[in-house]
Amino acid sequence: MSRMADWGNDLYTGKRSFNFVDKSKTWYLWSAVIMTVAALGLVVQPLNLSLEFTGGSEFRVATSSAPDDYESRATDTVREVAGRDASANVSTLGGSTVRVQTEELDETQAREVTRDLATAFDVDTNDVSSNFIGPSWGKSVSEQALRALAVFIVLTTALMALYYRNWKMAVSSMVALAHDMFITVGIYAWTGFEVSPATMIGFLTVLGYSLYDTVVVFDHVKENTRTAFANRRTSFADAANLAVNQTLVRSINTTVIAVLPIVAVIVIGFARLGPGTLLDLSLALFIGMSVGAASSIFIATPLLVDLRRKDPEVVRLAEDAAKLHARQERQLATAGAGGRGPTSPSPGPADTTTPRTAKGEATTSVSSPLDGESDGSGDGGQTVTGRTVHKYAQSGGPRNQPKKTPRKRRGRG
Hints:
The protein contains eleven helices and eight strands.
């Protein structure tokens, strides 16, 4: 645990850093490959829409314990009534209730299937319930979900543009958001997970979570770049990359903590509960949160830097930072050569390590940081006389002077 904390501190201070921004083309390439695979999933295998979207008939058989061959029993029963070409989606709920979903059946066929299912599973007819869902309800749900998605995107884009006062930040966050949704939908297509109204709710929740993670990173980007523009010491790309590193541990910890209970629900859902609202919602949250955490790091911030790379103020900042770094390297090279400038006198043969003043007092050549900032080399600093002084100590004044002992006033004899 201490190593994790040290690692996080190193990332926050910049002592250790991963270059996410300069490798943006690599992240874009991987993202394009994943999105292509997701798109192929939508072409090869369409989404498995639930009965609420397609419409049809649903039967539920309450048993003490579902038999091992429950799927074949239910499928054969439906095909005996509706025809050999009839499709049946059979699953269990809670390990004891068998759910059978079929295409739309008329009242006569529904009664026959109910009676035959009771016979096939050896239960009373009252233990078999039937329900019909028309496709118009699913169409209404789909339209409302798409309308809510459109309103969400428009309002979010406007609010982020106003908050950051930069439309490129809003565009970057929306691209990362679309990236998360497209990959999530592609995973659903390839795996064949059922898309239900609960799944749609999970999708909308994922949008909020992904956007929240991106906003946290962008807040650090805003703070770091504002400081960079003020002191002209760091380029926009370096400041943004530092922001990603500073939030990396937080993003990992938040995602892991949020996903762990969802994984527990998924395991219980597959093992005991079976398909249902809880499992559908958990699957959408698990996939979306995992993808959303990655997009905030690998897509949103690198894309923002690329969009602003040619801005005049960003170009000037990069030039000023490069000049400053070059000047600092020259100072370090001069200090490494012994701290002597071109006109510095050579030390005498008796002392080749420390130059001395005319009075013979040893001095230490220390290059002071720019703009009066601390060099962060330790708790103390060296004065020109070589004396080590704690960073919080005063260089002069009453605290560093010896105390005066007051004289006793002599009394008159």
